[in-house]
Design a protein that fits this description.
This protein is of the alpha/beta class. Helix content is 38%, strand content 14%. The chain is built from 11 helices and 9 strands. The chain binds N-carbamoyl-L-aspartate. The site of N-carbamoyl-L-aspartate has 11 residues, from helix 2 and helix 6.
Length: 311
């Protein structure tokens, strides 16, 4: 939660005006980035540590770029080389980070709740960059910004979130954000990959692409998260693509001008066909990456103002 908290741990519980204010600020950073200028005085003298216990390309890099564009000293702590592998606990890591006077801590962890635990123990502002199957708040913010810029609003839009919803922190954060801002959310996927309590969240559940995509303004595909699956939840990649993979034929079930999104990394030919992913008119995937930097600048900006030290 962002207010009155100095951390960003989840979208759930955030109020619509505070989400909209963040998106408005991010909008101004899109313009700044496109103009090729930076604002290096904003976080001058502040230290941002990227603490990633799980792989990441887009998220880690965009937090690094965002921090640098605002003038922060950015340190990437590679967990593979850190003391964590020598048995240091998360709380020992927190104590070490405190001693280093880190101001902003960006955390990705395989366990749901790990960033929240760190937030209780460190003096820095903690930003959740993805925790287990729980949430990935900056991804939902950048997705919302991408949609809002293209469609002018979120209210009243139908967004179909498709595929491996069960293991997706991206889906969870998006569901909370989209519903808070007035979108209607369809969740589409096989029974084995949809949380049993999904309908309780206020979404409509479909186990058929044709029905789930009907009337959709946005089709958001998710990666099949094999690393989080314990049993054989899907038959084979080929089978999955046949029933659930987004190709031109299935995209035709949505509105004629429906736009396609994917948080990346993509499994081409598994959840999405290459020609759909690369379609210059229908696909927003590259734009999502651009919005990621702007949204993270906005988040760092807001949190650093809240956490301003007295020195
Ligand atoms: C996502 C994640 O890590 O949750 N990636 C990302 O941040 N863009 C989605 C995924 O891994 O499938």
């Amino acid at each position: 939660m962002l207010t009155p908290n100095r951390h960003l741990l989840q979208i759930e519980g955030m109020h619509p005006p505070e989400i909209s204010a963040l998106l408005d600020l991010a909008e101004s950073y899109v313009l700044l980035n496109r103009s090729g200028t930076t604002q290096r005085d904003l976080l001058r003298g502040r230290t941002l540590i990227n603490l990633f216990f799980e792989d990441s390309t887009r998220t880690r890099t965009s937090f690094e770029i965002a921090g640098k564009r605002l003038g922060a000293d950015v340190v990437n702590m590679s967990v593979a080389n850190s003391s964590v592998n020598k048995g240091e606990t998360l709380l020992d890591t927190a104590a070490t980070l405190n001693a280093m006077n880190c101001d902003l801590l960006v955390v990705r962890h395989g366990q749901s709740g790990a960033p929240a635990l760190l937030a209780q123990k460190v003096e820095a502002s903690v930003i959740n960059a993805g925790d287990g199957t729980h949430e990935h708040p900056t991804q939902a913010l950048l997705d919302a910004l991408t949609i809002r810029r293209r469609r002018g609003r979120l209210e009243g839009l139908v967004v179909a979130i498709c595929g491996d919803v069960l293991h997706s922190r991206v889906a969870r954060s998006n569901i909370h954000l989209l519903l808070a801002l007035g979108s209607r959310v369809h969740i589409v996927g096989p029974v084995t990959l949809i949380p049993t309590d999904a309908a309780r969240l206020g979404v409509t559940v479909f186990h058929d692409m044709k029905a789930g995509l009907a009337g959709a303004d946005i089709v958001m595909m998710l990666r099949l998260q094999k690393e989080r699956m314990t049993g054989g939840l899907v038959p084979s990649a080929r089978e999955f693509f046949r029933f659930w993979g987004l190709d031109a034929e299935k995209l035709a079930f949505a509105k004629p001008d429906a736009l396609v999104m994917h948080p990346g990394p993509m499994n081409r030919g598994v959840e999405i066909a290459s020609d759909v992913a690369d379609d210059p008119i229908r696909s927003l995937i590259k734009e999502q990456v651009e919005m990621g930097v702007a949204v993270r600048m906005a988040v760092l900006d807001v949190l650093s103002r809240r956490a301003k030290r007295n020195d």
